[in-house]
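Encode chain A's predicted structure.
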Amino acid sequence: MAKYMNPNVIDLALNDIKTNANKLVVCAQQPTTFAEANVTYALGSVAMTSADYTLANGDVSGRKVTVAAKAAVPVTVSGTATHVALIDTVNSVLKLVTTTTSTAVAAAGTVDVGSFKDEIQAPA
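Encoded structure for chain A:
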């Protein structure tokens, strides 16, 4: 039996990120909660708007959201950046976490975050 999911259903999930993830946080460890992303493991952060996200067909199947690169993200805590989190500060929700190249950062400095994408594949 074939499986199918309308792309609009997948876009609902990706649009939640695009609409509500209003802050990108560079983290020292993988956060599993909003508090860990926003405070505990946070090294630096930058505001995000819906213009920073692009929805498109997936590279493999389904749909994807591409997150724009952010240059010169202000660093407030020294450490080693290993993860990037997208959070919703209005509703205190952790939306998405991904890994990044391990990079030492220093307080009062900046760090560049490259573009990345997250794909939700169509049912197989």
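The radius of gyration is 15 Å.
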